[in-house]
Amino acid sequence: MERSNGFADATATFEEASFVVVGVPFDRTTSFRPGARFGPDSIRQHSWNFESYDLETGIDLSEIPVHDLGNVGEFGFAKDMVAAVREEIRPIYDAGKIPIVLGGDHACSPPCVEAYPTGKSIGVLYLDAHMDFRSSYLGDDRSHACSSRRIVEKVGAQNVVVLGVRSVSKEEVDDNRSIGMPYITAHEVARDGIESSMRKALSLLKTDRIYVSLDIDAIDPAYAGGTGTPEPFGLTPRDVKYILGEVAPRLAGLDIMEVSPHYDTGNTSLLAARLAREAIVRAVASKRVR
Ligand code: MN
Ligand code: MN
After folding, report:
1. 65, 91, 194, 252: which is deepest, by most CB within 10 A?
2. How far is the CA of 71 from the centre of ligand 2 (A)?
3. Of the bound ligands, which one is closest to the alpha carbon of residue 148?
4. Domains of the chain
């Protein structure tokens, strides 16, 4: 494990921690513009911007035991990254802790789900502008364009909901006709409201625990332009804040992927850091974890 300047208020040891931050500085499968490898450390840096006290819950983040494991190494091939991330994340679940994984491109998410203990079921709420449902992309079945597909293969289509999608290929939609992964588009969220959309998502996810994978491009580029594949007509930061609050009692893990700081004023990293802190505070407030 390589050390980096840690996530704010992550002062607990691994043993003490309820939450464990891990960085995956990998962006080799990025298809449009690279740079998400710089995401983990940029999100950490920006996490120091915030007060540790949370106004809404009265919880002070400095009192929540969070550990920052640092970054996994760097890899040339996605398959090597996948193996290393599984190894890194598995002990976190085994110890009953919640991983908070900072990417990296979205290829880094499937191994975080695949590391979940075999025999225990898990649901996945997949927040993304894209469906990421290609069987293979540019010859790589571990491309970030294939991540929801790999997750469906692990947990089953009935245990995944994609929310915020607004960019797909025809083949992805055609493929999914027989597979049946549920999705709620960003346009439906805009029409029906986030409360109603989340009610629908949570009614579809029947497992006790839910893993949230946040591709930052789920959020509109007006708020989160520092990303590899920005797509207009997205969710608002407040939508995602609400989502994290609703999932909190069932949170199994969270990743925040595709933050690419060089296309950014700092706002995207700030938002990612704030959402990670929101997830932690809300999970504690929900009394699921201390
Ligand atoms: Mn994605
Ligand atoms: Mn995306």
Report:
1. 252
2. 22
3. 1
4. 19-286 (3.40.800.10)
